[in-house]
Amino acid sequence: MAKELGRTVFAGYRVGLLHGRMKSDEKDAVMRRFRAGDLQLLFSTTVIEVGVDVPNANVMVVEHADRFGLSQLHQLRGRVGRGSDHALCLLVAPYHRGEDVYRRLKAMRDSTDGFKIAEVDLELRGPGEFLGTRQHGLPDFRVSSLIRDTKTLAEARDAAERWLSNDPGLSSVESAPLRAILEHRWKGRLGLAEIG
């Protein structure tokens, strides 16, 4: 794509290419040329997501933005607008990709606040497992919501911490039902909490 667009749409511009399969010294050389203004356009994979600081970069186009998560899009967008010039990040996605894609892209359009974007991400993807290996999905809570019920969940956490401070091993007679529920509900995953 870099070669094709460099030959056609962007003929007359100095175009560079950056991707993860390049050797470190090759990537560094391309970034030095881009930072110095020797390259006017840089085609890149998401290798530029973190740690790239080019203050004069002020326009970014993200192809297939529907394929990226919100935190990754937020990181990519953060690569432009680091200088004093106005910046623009265009997120390009096919028109009909479903309600979740629309909400993710709308969140990016409506906010530059990483905390608000993370909140939308949590609503859409879910928190994943507390004890386990799943990184996203629906929460195990049957009634509450991590977003809507933060006060109630904080009170429940505090009550659980008080209980555990009095009976850390859940070995008392009063703790027996809690211990049975934990062992049943979390089965083989309780061992994961002891790792690390």
Would you kindly provide a written description of the structure presented here, covering whatever features stand out?
The longest helix is centred in the C-terminal third of the chain and has 17 residues, at about 150-165. This protein is mainly alpha-helical. The mean pLDDT is about 85. The protein has two domains: about 1-100, P-loop containing nucleotide triphosphate hydrolases (Rossmann fold), CATH 3.40.50.300; about 150-195, no CATH class. About 40% of the residues lie in helices and about 10% in strands. Helix 3 links the parallel strand 3 (about 60) and strand 4 (about 90).
Short description:
It is built from seven helices and four strands, in the order αβαββαβαααα.
CATH homologous superfamily of the largest domain, by name?
P-loop containing nucleotide triphosphate hydrolases
Instruction: Write down the Rg.
Output: 24 Å
Report the sheet-strand fraction: 5-15%
Which stretches are poorly predicted, pLDDT < 50 over at least 5 residues? none
What proportion of the residues is helical, as a percent range? 40-55%
Helix and strand pattern = HEHEEHEHHHH
Helices and strands in order, then pairings?
Layout (H helix, E strand, L loop, with lengths): L1 H6 L7 E4 L5 H13 L4 E4 L14 E4 L7 H8 L10 E4 L7 H12 L3 H12 L24 H17 L9 H11 L10
Parallel strand pairs: 1-2, 3-4
Helix pairs in contact: 4-5
Q: What descriptive keywords fit this protein?
A:
Rossmann fold, 40% helix, 196 residues
